[in-house]
Write a structure and sequence with these properties.
10 helices; 5 strands; 5-stranded parallel β-sheet; Rossmann fold; alpha/beta; binds magnesium ion; binds uridine-5'-diphosphate; binds adenosine-5'-diphosphate; 250 residues
């Protein structure tokens, strides 16, 4: 059954129930409040539900985290939409969260824009903060984290700050020629969908993202998918991975 992000009204209600943030100047009732964070992640890692007295809405399930990796244009976003539809995950695209920061004129906006145009990687603390906020707001404990981590530094930052590791890592393996073709035809008006940026992004992918993929291969968490073929053909390789985990991820 499809699970989309929950209604805005529901988000606001939940945000309102959280304690005010003492360390953040941007939100009066910020989810990144240290005590809340520790409580949430203690519960996530121990599986022990929080009590009303803990100051945040009680949750009952440990997170099930999937990292979705692959070069630019390999089809990560496209396949994530299918996974959401079939298996009911909350899809968190790191790139989309960063683009939202640019659009909302946040303090990091211009730095993020410059970094994306150059095909480089935004500092880990910024991206992890955005992901953490979405995860804390989510009523759904099954997360598809799309396009992150993009470097070993990203990976370590996530694991340290969140005190969590992915359960599953997908790698969409696609030849460069095909990725370039797809990105140049993507037609979403993205500042990075041009030949100069894509060339830089492919170099960054090779140098920084492949080591992350190797790390998870060594840890037995990696599922390598041949990303050439029709969207449906590719999804038929993805489906059994989640079907096998369905009981665990429920
Ligand atoms: N299997 C496929 N075959 C051909 N084109 C595809 C396929 N999967 C996705 N695309 C197209 O390629 C482009 C990049 O896909 P996207 O899902 O945005 O990739 P990524 O998130 O990895 O950059 C999009 O225009 C998408 O419609
Ligand atoms: O964790 C992330 C995810 C994305 N980006 C930046 O955002 C761009 C676009 O990422 P996205 O995942 O949207 O691109 P895709 O691979 O889907 O084309 C990347 O090239 C990076 O500059 C980043 O710095 N860190
Ligand atoms: Mg994408």
């Amino acid at each position: 059954m499809p699970v989309s992000k929950k209604p805005i009204a529901n988000r606001k209600r939940k945000r309102h129930m959280l304690p005010s943030c003492r360390s953040c100047s941007t939100h009066t009732r910020c989810l990144l409040h240290e005590a809340s964070k520790q409580q949430i992640w203690k519960m996530f890692t121990t599986g022990i539900p929080l009590q009303e007295k803990d100051g945040i809405f009680p949750r009952h399930k440990a997170p099930f985290i999937t990292f979705v990796l692959g070069g630019p244009g390999s089809g990560k976003g496209t396949q994530c939409a299918k996974i959401v539809e079939t298996f009911g995950f909350n899809h968190l695209s790191a790139g989309d969260l960063l683009r939202k920061e640019i659009a909302s004129n946040s303090e990091y906006g211009s730095m993020i824009l410059d970094t994306i145009k150059e095909g480089k990687i935004v500092p880990s603390e910024v991206t992890v903060k955005l992901l953490r906020r979405e995860m804390e707001l989510s009523d759904n404990h099954k997360f598809l984290i799309d396009g992150f981590p993009r470097s070993e530094e990203n990976r370590r930052a996530f694991e340290e700050i969140m005190e969590a590791e992915p359960d599953v890592v997908l790698f969409f393996d696609c030849p460069e020629e095909e990725m370039v073709k797809r990105v140049l035809n993507r037609n979403q008006g993205r500042v990075d969908d041009n030949i100069d940026t894509i060339k830089k992004r492919l170099k960054v992918f090779e140098a920084l993202n492949i080591p992350v993929i190797d790390h998870y291969a060594k840890r037995g968490k990696l599922h390598k998918i041949n990303a050439v073929g029709s969207e449906d053909e590719i999804f038929e390789q993805v489906r059994p991975i989640f079907a096998a985990y369905q009981h665990e991820a429920k």
